[in-house]
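Hallway conversation turned thread

IA: we were arguing at lunch whether anyone had actually written out 3-deoxy-manno-octulosonate cytidylyltransferase end to end. Turns out nobody had. So, for the record, here is the sequence (251 residues) and right after it the C-alpha cells. Reply here if something looks off.
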Amino acid sequence: MTHKLKTIAMIPARYEASRFPGKLMQDLQGKPVIIRTYEAALKTQLFDNVYVVTDSDLIYNTVKAAGGEVIMSQKEHSCGSDRIAEAVADLDIDIVVNVQGDEPFTNEDDMRNVLQVFYENGAEAIDLASLMTPIMVKAEIENPNNVKVIVDEANFALYFSRAPIPFPRDQDIDITYYKHKGIYAFRKQAVLDFAKLPMRGLEAAEKIEAIRYLEYGKRIKMVYSDSPAIGIDTPQDLEEARLIIKKQRRS
C-alpha cells in the first residue's frame, strides 16, 4: 500500500494586484473572492489543511472572521512561491498545493489529478506538478496574459512563455497550444529550494515564476485538464464569475 503523503493547500493572497487592485476582496455573490476560493479548496476534501497566506491585515481579518486558517507573511515577497516557502518552512508536510487566490472555480478533479502524479511510477523524478489546458482561439493563444507551455513526450514542461509557443512557422503542422493553469503541487523541498535561488534572466524577462524551476533543473510534470481556467484578472472577469455563480444557484 502506498504511503499517504501529508498534503496541504496554500492560497497566497496579496491585496495589491497590478491589473486589478483589491480583486481578492471584491464581492462575488455575497462573499469576497478570497473566501470563495478558500471554500472551493476545502470542499474538495483532498487536503489535511487549507491555509490562506497573506501580507494584508484586511485579508487576514476577513479569513479569520469566516473561520478560515490564515498565516501572516513575515517578509515582503515578490511571488506566491516565496510566500508559500516562508509559510511551510516549519510545517511537517510532504506536498503543498499552491491554489491561486483569484481562481474560485478550481475544481476537485483538477486538484486530484495533479496530486495523483506523486503516487505513480516514476514519481520520485517529479519536483512539482501543474496543469495545462488546450486553447484553440487565436486571440487567446496570442494574449500575453495567457501563459503557454510546451512539454516533452512524458508531459514534463520544457518551457513556459507569454508568447505563442511553438511559433507556427509551418502553418500546415497541426499543433495544439496549451495554456498553463495556475495550480502547482510542490514537494516541500522544491518550494524551499525555489525561495533560496536567485531569479535568472528568462524568468525576469517573462515574469513567469515557473521558469525559475526549469532554469535550475527542477522537473515539472504537466497534467492535462479539459476544464476552462476561470481566473479573475479584470473587472470583466469578476462580472463573468458572478454570472457563473448565479447559474450554479439556479441549477
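OS: looked through it. The chain has a mean pLDDT of 92.
IA: good, adding that to the notes. The longest strand covers residues 177-187.
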